[in-house]
Amino acid sequence: MAQFVRKLTEKAPMLVTAAVTYSKPRLATSWQYAKVELIPPTPAEIPTAIQRLKKIVNSAQTGSFKQLTVKEALLNGLVATEVRMWFYVDEIIGKRGIIGYNV
Known about the structure:
This protein has helices spanning 2-37, 46-62, 70-95. The protein is mostly helical.
């Protein structure tokens, strides 16, 4: 056991250096996307969002959503699934547990 600990302490700086070298470019890319994607909408973007919502409602009323390609329909389904899963995660966080509410 002592030999394992000694080897681990000898290799620790090299492992940390390798981890930092590996993660720096990936974290930089993630931060670049986060700065763009995670900002709240500006007041100028709100009318665009309202128009998109109207277009979705009109598509549902007229049935034009049936003309989507399989790829577009799959992507729309994935986005809807993601939104639903975030709702479930928020519910779990809000009630501080997975099982039911304490009423």
